[in-house]
Amino acid sequence: MLGEYTIVGRGAAEIAASVERAVGAGELNPGQLLPPLRELAARLGVNPNTVAAAYRTLRERGVIETAGRRGSRVRPRPATTGRECIRVEVPEGVRDLADGNPDPALLPPLAGAFGAAAEQGDREPVLYGAGPVEPELARIARADLDADGVPDGPVAVTSGSLDAIERVLAVHLKPGDAVAVEDPGWGSVLDLVPALGLRIVPVGVDDDGPLPEDVRQALEGGARALIVTDRAQNPTGAAVGAERARALRAVLGEYPETLLVEDDHGYRIVDQPLRPLAGVTRSWAFVRSVAKAYGPDLRLAVLTGDAATLDRVRGRQRLGPGWVSRLVQRAVVRLWADGVVDAPVVAAAYGRRRDALIAALARRGVQACGSSGMNVWIRVPDETGAVARLLHAGWAVAPGARFRMNAPQGIRITVSTLTEEEIEEVADAVASAVEPGVAGGYA
Question: Which of 16, 203, 221, 321 is 20 to 30 A (C-alpha) from 241?
Fold first, then answer.
């Protein structure tokens, strides 16, 4: 059952640490079955309750999962390793279409903005006790949110979208609570939720976002929170349309105690209008990152939400990092004020590449999805084989296992740096790597 690895320890904490250490080191593999409680207790000479406590700790930390009589096993993507381990090593000479990064040519230069922010910092140093949010950043961000129909609420600043999502979930939920999450969806969220000791309830996705009936079933089944990507959904490129937004709001209206978390990470790189869902439930949060439009290393996101949620988040943030650097915030203000990113131009560039690849694949009998953002999703009968064949042909794509729970197998292609000349070549390679009669979109 465990191969060469032996679980050790006398107390629950020691036993849990032994298992977690082995998972992190790769000595216990994803999906590997653990011994039954009584069997391990007898082997270690401890009370079965001690092993039960250790297994409970491991479940809450997202390392293992328990399926009743089928026993406990290492999660397919344990929190100690993360989905980033499910990646393709890109050999020299192979074109990387797997990394999910924006096009560096469409990112703005940062030197001027940081220079101006540093000069302001010299004149007006930010010291302990200063406010955590740059006033001008809050003003501009709130004006943009108002223009997009996001309900009024306080503004906080976090170190990126995932930091905001983690903080919101942590201040509302307790280990064991269920969270409805898009499937396929952002791999980091699929790692984060179980790492917080929460349970994932997968919700299907199509071009218009989460399926309302799946959301209804998840909430009816006890899910306490729902995470939705409004636009440029990763990996499918889905964007919540007007009709879908009405349907989802109707479902949420039946469950007003649901914590709604909306992620608009495609801010300023998409041309689809925002259709926010916030305002129906009592607790909600809406987060916007600057990563895709201005640079991943800025690590800044704007968070708003209901007053109680934001008060909790800001209170916990004060006890940890305190605040996100006001120097970085001032640089972002300068980038916004100077208009260095022409959102329609950026959105059009990604849109042309995405649409061209989807059309080229369609001409070869391969259906692909991607209505917004920089990614194209293709369902395939055998993603491992498809990834390997494409790698052999000189193209690295992301395996769907990084992004899915119950969803069919697929591959993700990031189009952000694709040239016109490459699109036909990629389409040829994909058509050869999959079976066109089987490959398709979401289901």
Answer: 221
Catalogue the E-assigned strands of 47-149: 64-66, 72-74, 95-96
Same domain for 374 and 306, yes or no, is: no
Spatial separation of the C-alpha atoms in residues 354 and 332, rounded to whole Å: 28
Question: What are the residues whose beta carbons fall under 8 Å from the beta carbon of 144, sequence distance 6 or more?
Answer: 288
Question: Do 402 and 270 contact (CB within 8 A), yes or no?
Answer: no
How, if at all, do strands 410-414 and 375-379 pair? antiparallel
Kindly state the tokens that stand for 307. Answer: 């007053």
Task: Specify the CATH number for the domain of residue 26.
Answer: 1.10.10.10
Measured distance between the N- and C-terminal CA atoms of the chain, rounded to whole angstroms: 34
**Residue 155's domain is classified under what CATH number?**
3.40.640.10
- Looking at the fold, whether 203 and 309 belong to one and the same domain comes out as yes
The model's pTM is 0.84
Could you tell me the sign of the dihedral formed by the alpha carbons of 49, 55, 59, 61, in that order? positive
Name the pLDDT band for 1 (thresholds 50, 70, 90).
low
**Domain count along the chain:** 3
* Residues 301 and 288 sit within 8 Å (Cβ to Cβ): yes
Alpha carbon of 138 to those of 32, 115, 141, 320, 394: distances in Å? Answer: 48, 21, 5, 21, 45
Give Cβ neighbours of residue 425 (< 8 Å, ≥ 6 apart). Answer: none
Please give the angle made by the CA atoms of 202, 205 and 207, to the nearest 5 degrees.
170
- What is d(CA 415, CA 101) in angstroms, rounded to the nearest whole number? 9
Residues 196, 302, single domain; the answer is yes
State percent of the chain over pLDDT 90: 78
Q: Is residue 271 part of a domain?
A: yes
Does one domain contain both 100 and 115? no
Report the amino acid identity of residue 257: E
Residues 215 and 301 placed together within one structural domain of the fold: yes
Between strands 225-229 and 259-263, the pairing is: parallel
**Structure tokens, 271:** 């041309």
Q: Are 140 and 126 in contact (CB under 8 A)?
A: no
CA-CA distance, 428 to 440, in Å (whole number)? 16
Q: Where are the beta strands (DSSP E) in 12-166?
A: 64-66, 72-74, 95-96, 155-158
pLDDT in tens, 125-136: 999 999 999 999
Same domain? 184 vs 286:
yes
**Domain with 159 in it:** 111-338
